[in-house]
Specification:
The protein contains 26 helices and eight strands. It is an alpha/beta fold and about 450 residues long. Bound molecules: iron/sulfur cluster (SF4) (2 copies). One iron/sulfur cluster binds next to helix 4, helix 5 and helix 7.
Amino acid sequence: MHEHPTQLAGALAAEERKLLACVHCGLCLEACPTYVHTGDENDGPRGRIYLMRAVEEERLSLDSPAFTRHIDRCLGCRACESACPAGVEYGQLLEAARADIAAGGRKLGWTSRALRLALRHVWSRPARLRLAFGLARLLRDSRLPHLLLASKLTKLLPATVELSLALLDSSRPARPSRSGDEGKSVAGGANARDVDSSALLFEGCVTEGLFARVNRATARVLGANGCRLSAPRGQVCCGALHAHAGDLEGARLLARRNVEAFRDEGGAAVVTNAGGCGAMLASYVHLLAGDAEYAEGARDFSARVRDVSQQLDATGLGRAGAPLEDVAVTYDASCHLLHGQKARTEPLRVLGAVGGVRLVPLEGSDVCCGGAGVYNLLEPALSARVLEEKLAHVRETGAEVLATGNPGCHMQLGAGARLAGLPLRVVHPVELLDESYRRAGLYDGARDES
Ligand code: SF4
Ligand code: SF4
């Protein structure tokens, strides 16, 4: 039996100390995309924290639209955390507020109801989730979404359906994948030479489902730099979508399974290439803090989580690839990679190691793209405004390639570019390094099990 005092006693009430840490200075406001776009104090971090305190002190009802509306409109990007001098852990407060709202049983729209059903009955069941992603890949690879979008017939469909098709289509590789990159496991980091360390790959459900090529590239690149990667069996979704939707219990169930799957006496790093997953995995220490059986395992697990760029920093980028053809690349930071995992410069160093890449700075690269999990489907109007501004900055760079380290951002930016008619190839930074290593022949003759 596991006990979950936070949900029983009210998740926000259990976080009172974190609520009181806010000194209302307002230094976070300009970092907050929803505040910047609406100009409404209640759509900024300080206002939302005021509202949370009002609910926690029972001055405002939990199901009051004055509360739920503004909590719903938060992207959960955590830019306010990086801006806050008082160290307010806003991301955890937001999850607590959403857990209390969900527990309050308010009436949901059809999109939220469908999401909740999918999280409970598909996302939490690995076999069903694999089947769902298999079907999604079939649809994507049939190129039907691409043809419908190109013909503009999607304009006759509801905007959410058109966006969903564009999101799926944007996960297609811009160039054909290496044979074997889709649908097979990492199986030992096949290309490791002079192996002097090993690490465990957290595959991630969306990454393994739609971007398996990024997992394979991660294994090849780390292998080439002396780090053998293996993917533990029994790992499941990280639970980020559950936590963001207020289902902390669902997130805890998944977290316990991952802590079990990644137990390692040698303390091997847990490597992820998805900013959203990485920040969630790093927060298991908090999520399972009240669980007598798992608290210690969660602390150990979270301390071992690294983004692939941070792991490459640790192993050292010892191998030189061949230059790509002269290409202008810009980088957009995944919010959770930046504000959750604090990986600001490491992804840029990965890109800097790729010859032929002209790195063009992106204005507002540390501002959310509006994807934010499924925010783009639940809050389409505000998401579209945030995305529009991002794409305007991307256009200004003149870059042909945009690199970003999270599948959600990849799909949001790719879909936005497709719908706006902007020619843009979206990649993970590690894919470019992988491409340069392949051109240099670093993988030739290596036993390739990927
Ligand atoms: S998480 Fe992002 S959108 Fe939400 S309050 Fe903080 S900065 Fe604003
Ligand atoms: S910067 Fe921090 S302390 Fe200041 S208002 Fe924002 S959350 Fe509160």
